[in-house]
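Tutorial handout. Part one gives the primary structure; part two gives the three-dimensional structure as tokens.
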Amino acid sequence: MNKDLSRYKDPEKRRLWLNDWKRNHRRNNPDVRKAEKERLNKRRNDNKWKAIQYLGGRCSSGKSGCNNIIATKENMAIFDFHHIENKEVGVATLFSRTWKKILKEIKKCVLECSNCHRLER
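Part two.
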């Protein structure tokens, strides 16, 4: 990092300059943007896997003849979170948030494979 902060004696000006530099560095550097995107995708996938395991790791319905499919990291994309209580926000939008926020919402859900979830609606 090539930042000369000595010219900013005032801590507030230093903070503003540094925030501006970081924002422009992310925006103008494709490698940084790519790394941040990969980090966010990994966090989302890890949180989804954790949520699936929290809800038992298998389809809870079995209505479509799915024989209660067991979740693996390879097939976790086929699982949906079906709200059985009041829905505040969709679970998929929370996967980039903290586990505490995710947990609050998935406690209102059951885990279903996508076929069973479509039949439920």
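Part three, for discussion. The CA atoms of residues 52 and 111 lie 7 Å apart. The radius of gyration is 21 Å.
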